Each structure stands twice: as C-alpha cells, then as structure tokens.
Amino acid sequence: MKRLLLLTLLAAATSPAQQSAKKEVFWSFRPPATVSPPVVKNTEWPLGMVDRFILAAQEKKGLSPSKAAEPRVLVRRLFFALCGLPPAADVMEHWQREIGPDLNQTAIAALVDSLLKSPRFGEHWGQHWLDVARFAESTGGDANGIHLHAWRYRDYVIDSLNEDKPFDRFIREQIAGDLLPISSDKEWAQNLVATGFLAVGQKLVGEVEDRKFFADLVDEQIDATTRAFLGLTVSCARCHDHKTDPIPQADYYALAAIFRNT
Predict the structure, then answer these.
(1) What is the Cα–Cα distance from 9 to 28, expressed in whole angstroms?
(2) Nearest to residue 55, comparing CAs of 74, 68, 42?
(3) How distant, in Å, are the alpha carbons of 26, 27, 154, 227, 242 from that of 22?
(4) Contact 68, 61 (CB under 8 A)
(5) Distance CA 7, CA 224 (A)
(6) How does pLDDT run across 91-143, given as a tens digit for each residue?
(7) How many CA atoms lie within 13 A of 107 on its CB side?
(8) What is the tens place of the pLDDT at every residue in 63-79?
(9) Helix (H, G, I), strand (E, B) or coil at 239
C-alpha cells in the first residue's frame, strides 16, 4: 500500500484474432510469477534483490551505477520523495551525523521508517491517488456544483496511506464500502466516505434528460473505476467492442447495469 503501483497498457490497434494473441503476450494480462534475480558482474553495488534487476539492465547496455549521494544530498532526497518537504536545519544536521560519510545503512533505514510514519507521507503521496481518482471539490462540466463534503474523501485517502491499509481493502472500500461487514457505526461511516471515489469527478448536472444523465454518470464511474484499478479504458466499449483490449461491449453494459442499480 505504501507504493501504489498502477498498471499502464500500451497497445496498437489490432484485429480480434490479434487481440486474443496479444492477451497472452501483454505483461499486464499475465498472472504474477516468481522470477529469480539476474546474475550481475558487480556484486558489491546491489543492496537488495531489486537492485540486481536495475544493475543487470545497466550492465547489458554497458552502463554503471552513479556515484553514491553524499549524506546531505541523500537526506534531502528522502525528505522530498517521501514527504514533499525539505528537512529543518537541525533535523538535517542530526541525520547527516547519523548516516555519516560511510552511508550507514541502518541509519538510512531508520530515517526512511521515520518519514513513512510521518503524517506528511500520506499528505504527499495521497495527492497521487487523488489524481487517479479525479478528485475535485466541484462537479465541473456544464454546471459547477460544489461537493461540500469532498474533503472527507480526501482525508480518507490520506489516512489510509498513513495507516498502511492493505491495498485490497482500500479498493473494496472505495467501490463497495457501504456493503462491507462492519463492527461499529464509526466503521460504517468511514466505509461510506470511501465510496466518495464514485461520487467525485465531473458530472453533467445540467443534463435535462434523466436517462442520458444516468447513462453519462455510469459511464464516468466505469471509466474512473477501470482506469484506477485495472489500468484499462473500458469506457471505450460504451459504443463498440474495444479495439485494442479484449473488452466486448457486452462486458461494458454488464458493468453499467451494476452501477446503474446503485
């Protein structure tokens, strides 16, 4: 959950037969599999298994890792990356001293842990999820109605990150929080706020035709949900079978029936 990894899908237009073949090829359609870290020549540089993948790609192209950052630079990078703010002078001095010129890995890990526990972490990284969720405090579109309680969803996202909430739970709460089992009224209220994911975003509230308004509303919800959680532009199938992904129009309207029913 501390690292929200969202899928992106890059594909060229293909025929239905090619789509089926592509489905087996695209990395985003493959189930997770265990992969052994590659063998590298420079065995001193990697500090973990992920580093070996990075280094292997560099070595393949005849490149080598950059020189390690000095303590002061490293501390500033970590503060900006995890909290979005620079360290105070006394804090900088403390961590420079702790890390030292030899880049003490235990001290670096302690700094990272302290930043992950900071409320600023959720505020900084929460903005990235709010962009995915097309968060706004008004409807936009043809008439700019105000979402008076949009801030509650914003705070829910920030709190979820700071609590290190499991990502699967984070997903369920936003799509169907009002239907999840609860142990208290407080938990139900929080889950209900999570469904703000479906309520925020652009709504064409000036539409006078009820059926078109609800069709557009559902389409916007399908688009937001599938982009955020599947990395796919399923809303393209509103009018036709998807041209580049294996998504038929029938699947779109099956989803639409669920959203329309809510």
Answers:
(1) 7
(2) 42
(3) 6, 10, 37, 19, 13
(4) no
(5) 14
(6) 999 999 999 999 999 999 999 999 999 999 999 999 999 999 999 988 887 88
(7) 15
(8) 999 999 999 999 999 99
(9) coil
List Cβ neighbours of 130 (8 Å cut-off, separation of 6 or more): 154, 157
Report DSSP letters for 199-215, one per residue. HSS---TT---HHHHHH
* The two three-digit tokens of residue 130, written as one number: 């709010």
The total number of residues shown for the chain amounts to: 262
The whole-angstrom separation of Cα 98 and Cα 207 is 61
pTM of the model: 0.81
Q: 155: which 2 tokens?
A: 């705070």
d(Cα 179, Cα 220) in Å, to the nearest integer? 21
**CA torsion sign, 51 to 56 to 58 to 59?**
positive
Question: In Å, what is the CA distance from 59 to each residue of 44, 52, 65, 217, 252?
Answer: 14, 10, 9, 50, 45
Type of residue found at 212: K
Hunting for tokens 């557009």 — which residue is that? Answer: 216
Residue ranges of the alpha helices (H) in the chain? 16-25, 49-60, 71-83, 89-99, 105-116, 119-132, 150-162, 167-176, 185-194, 196-199, 210-230, 249-260
| Pick from 191, 208, 57: nearest CA to 143 | 208
And the tokens for 44? Answer: 């001193």
pLDDT for 24 equals 55
Helix/strand/coil for 146? strand
3-class DSSP assignment, residue 170: helix
